[in-house]
Design goal:
The protein contains eleven helices and four strands; from the N terminus they run βααβαββαααααααα. The chain is α/β, with parallel strands linked by helices. It has one domain. The two termini are 28 Å apart. 45% of the residues are buried. It binds zinc ion. Zinc ion binds next to α6 and α7.
């Protein structure tokens, strides 16, 4: 998925977010009504994944902040995108930013396609157990990331870093799995776009996490010399 900066409005859902467990309204398509309990359980699971990740890194305070007020699930990517256009007040007819768009967190609304649509869009991602809950967790983690930075979205760093961060934090096992042994390999890996990019982004984050802690990476990622600094580790 190529996510330009404006894509932040989309995949990462950077306009809002939340992990604090509280009853939040869930809007479902009619066909999914019978599975409301299952959907609600996945939303709670997503929050629990984010909280567990945050606690393990010393970000419990940020994770405790409310990140979203409601949840909306759509049967198709097209419907999800139409809603995102509406929420973000984008021009009518705005083009889908990526053919892999499956979720977002916009203006404190956690949005996603239904699990079946996710499987159709991203079979290589959806095979994992709890893949759909982890997809939701990914979106929430983008908001957690912004909270950690005191609200400064511009300090999130390069796309490969904040997307890799969300993949790692959500525990998404994206295929094909990449593994890097040098910084150069990692940079070469994240330079490639297209399908499989997020798996490579996550692999790069994991590689640099073997050199320095994730909180340190997060702190440094917004600096201009971030990648130069990574090469010195
Ligand atoms: Zn993302």
């Amino acid at each position: 998925m190529e996510i330009p900066r404006i894509g932040i409005l989309i995949c990462p859902g950077l306009l809002a977010a939340g992990t604090a467990a509280a009853a939040r309204p869930i809007r479902l398509p009619a066909g999914l009504e019978a599975r409301r309990g299952e959907v609600a359980a996945s939303v709670e699971k997503a929050s629990a994944i984010v909280l567990g990740f945050a606690k393990s890194k010393g970000w419990a305070k940020e994770a405790a902040l409310s990140q979203f007020d409601s949840v909306e699930i759509y049967s198709s990517q097209e419907e999800l995108w139409r809603r995102m256009v509406e929420i973000n007040k984008l021009p009518a007819g705005s083009q889908l930013p990526t053919d892999g768009l499956a979720a977002g967190l916009e203006s404190r609304v956690l949005l996603a396609v239904a699990p079946e649509e996710y499987k159709r869009l991203r079979p290589e991602y959806a095979a994992q157990k709890e893949a759909w809950a982890r997809l939701l967790a990914h979106e929430i983690i983008h908001r957690l990331h912004v909270q950690i930075l005191g609200g400064d979205e511009d300090a999130m760093g390069p796309v490969w870093f904040y997307e890799g961060f969300a993949v790692v934090g959500a525990g998404q096992s994206l295929k094909p799995v990449a593994e890097y042994k040098t910084a150069q390999e990692a940079f070469d890996g994240v330079a490639g776009k297209g399908r499989g990019a997020y798996a490579r982004y996550a692999a790069a984050v994991r590689f640099f996490m073997s050199k320095v802690s994730l909180p340190e990476l997060v702190k440094r990622a917004g600096r201009k010399d971030f990648e130069d600094w990574l090469r010195t580790l």
